[in-house]
Amino acid sequence: MKYFAVIGNPIAHSRSPEIHDAFAKALGLTINYQRLLSEPAQFTQTVNAFFHRTDVGVEHARTECAEARNPIAGHGMNVTVPFKEAALQYADELSEAAQIAGAVNTLTNQSGKIKGDNTDGIGLVTDILTNHQWPIADKRVLMVGAGGAARGCLLPILKQQPQQLTITNRSVDKAQSLAEGFQKYGNIDYADYTDYATTDTLNRPYDIVINATAASLHGQMIALPAEIFSADTLAYDMMYAKKPTPFMTFAQQHRATAVDGLGMLVEQAAQAFYLWHGEHPETATVIQRIRQSL
């Protein structure tokens, strides 16, 4: 039996246990995967208790997590809001993806040494390429948002060698800083969507438009120009819900193909599963199952 958890605050909504249990069952593996709720100030103590790195007790965490009480140290942990940057500092060793993303969403116990990785970008790219059959190579890609969600996906996108990757953000300084930080990895620039009338790059359609902002979580729509969409555009919202998000609805009104980020959620989990078990799980069935349960 190997023990796993997902840590966050809040965490009750997380679908990670369902996803990883489904992966394991399909591959004939037996795992224990639970949700782990931690207060922000207690992140280090909570993770230490899970990995048995100190003798800190589980009284520091409100948890459903059997592994935190089990004498066997935890094997792997997924990390969600608001702890991805804290996990970056916690890890003993970082993958290239984690270093460049500046955030960790996957921790692995390697004989007592904790390795941090970031699987979000691979999850996004795999969902676009495999599940939606939409090419990225030689295409024009627009990333809306310049926060952590965007940053974590830039390198995997650039590795697909798009013709151009443009970052647009309400704060153009953040978009500029992010674009300049990734210029050595590919063709990347930035634009200000609050002044799109004078921004040439936002006056014509893109092949892929990715919403990496949290606007959809609050039922809000970003004031994007309709010109960025066409019948040949994939509009991808990293958020997911039972109904189309405002971003998806707006894109559909301007003829784009609009999809949400449920596939990204499952595909990033599949990459974490591979890091832990060395096997790639089938994802299409899991995506469909969760979609039906929304």
Automatic annotation (TrEMBL):
One of its GO terms (biological process) is chorismate biosynthetic process. NADP(+) binds at E96, G145, A146, G147, G148, A149, M238, G261. Residues 6-107 form the Shikimate dehydrogenase substrate binding N-terminal domain. Pfam families: SDH_C (PF18317), Shikimate_DH (PF01488), Shikimate_dh_N (PF08501). GO terms for cellular component: cytosol. Keywords: Amino-acid biosynthesis, Aromatic amino acid biosynthesis, NADP, Oxidoreductase. This is Shikimate dehydrogenase (NADP(+)). It comes from Ostreibacterium oceani.
